[in-house]
TrEMBL record:
SMART domains: AAA. GO terms for cellular component: membrane. PANTHER family: ABC TRANSPORTER I FAMILY MEMBER 17. It comes from Nesterenkonia alkaliphila. NCBIfam families: 3a0107s01c2. The keyword Translocase applies. It holds the Pfam family ABC_tran. One of its GO terms (molecular function) is ATP hydrolysis activity. Residues 5-248 form the ABC transporter domain. It comes from the Bacteria. This is Phosphate ABC transporter ATP-binding protein. Keywords: ATP-binding, Nucleotide-binding, Translocase, Transport. SUPFAM superfamilies: P-loop containing nucleoside triphosphate hydrolases (SSF52540). GO terms for biological process: phosphate ion transmembrane transport.
Length: 259
């Protein structure tokens, strides 16, 4: 399954501070969208609203609507835990559970939900997810060894396997390669290209070449100054954003004149 994402007039606050203002965006199912922009413009903050992670901080809140297909994830009675099962997230630093085996890391989502799986069901889920994360061949002979014994790039693919194991509709990635070497980065970028066959992928990246390589659409965010809210300035096909943007701020950013 894969779902579209639509934000309507979304404002995001930390207490009284409005960190992101007035985002309107439509992200197609089965696509890769990159969020770019200078530090502090609200990319991560906005990304974390897409699976209701933002509100885990005290005082953090959201105004506006956020639809997964037709359903407002901020609607009355919607359980954030259900939303987070549909919208998985991969973080900047690989964060496998260090003492858990590779296999149990992949199955962690099921264990947290209290699902009862037979040994063969669990084996099938683990293998499928590890294959889906392009990690199976590297770990199939050591599934019972701790996840922390893998390289950084392998650990990040393990985290992606953990995310895809529960079959989400959307995968959010917050600078997933920033702690990785170039070879591991390429492995993750290849994987992102495969993931979009099944999932809607949204990635925050500081690396403009990466945005250009992996995404079909790009949203450029900017901030007018300290204490001001970040805004989405332009959203278009990635090739347009990088080669022929409409907005002067976008043009200045992608040509390296600031940020
Ligand atoms: N936990 C928090 N409490 C209060 N303000 C926060 C918090 N996290 C972020 N902010 C503020 O929200 C604004 C947007 O930050 P955010 O981290 O989303 O930007 P970003 O574009 O992802 O930046 P970077 O590229 O540096 O990661 C900034 O002004 C930041 O200081």
């Amino acid at each position: 399954m894969s779902k579209s994402i639509t934000a309507k007039d979304l404002n995001v606050y930390y207490g009284d501070f409005m960190a992101v203002e007035g985002v309107n965006i439509e992200i197609a199912a089965r696509s890769v969208t990159a969020f770019i922009g200078p530090s502090g413009c609200g990319k991560t903050t906005f990304l974390r609203t897409l699976n209701r992670m933002h509100e885990v901080l005290p005082g953090a809140r959201v105004e506006g609507e956020l639809l997964l297909d037709e359903d407002n994830i901020y609607g009355a009675g919607v359980d954030p835990v259900t939303v987070r099962a549909m919208v998985g997230m991969v973080f900047q630093r690989p964060n496998p559970f260090p003492t858990m085996s590779i296999r149990d890391n992949v199955l962690a989502g099921y264990k947290l939900n209290g699902a009862r799986l037979s040994r063969s069901q669990a084996d099938d889920i683990a293998e499928k997810a590890l294959r889906g994360a392009n990690l199976w061949n590297e770990v199939k002979d050591r599934l019972d060894k701790p996840g922390s014994g893998l390289s950084g790039g392998q650990q990040q693919r393990l985290c992606i396997a953990r995310t895809v194991a529960v079959e989400p509709d959307v995968i959010l990635m917050d600078e997933p390669c920033s702690a990785l070497d170039p070879i591991s980065t390429l492995a993750i970028e290849d994987l992102i290209a495969e993931l979009k066959e099944k999932y809607t992928v949204v990635i925050v990246t500081h690396n403009m070449q990466q945005a250009a390589r992996v995404s079909e659409k790009t949203a450029f965010f900017n901030i007018a100054g300290t204490g001001k809210p970040g805004k989405m300035i332009e959203y278009d096909e990635t090739s347009v954003i990088f080669n022929n943007p409409s907005n002067e701020q976008t043009e200045r950013y992608v040509s390296g004149k600031f940020g």
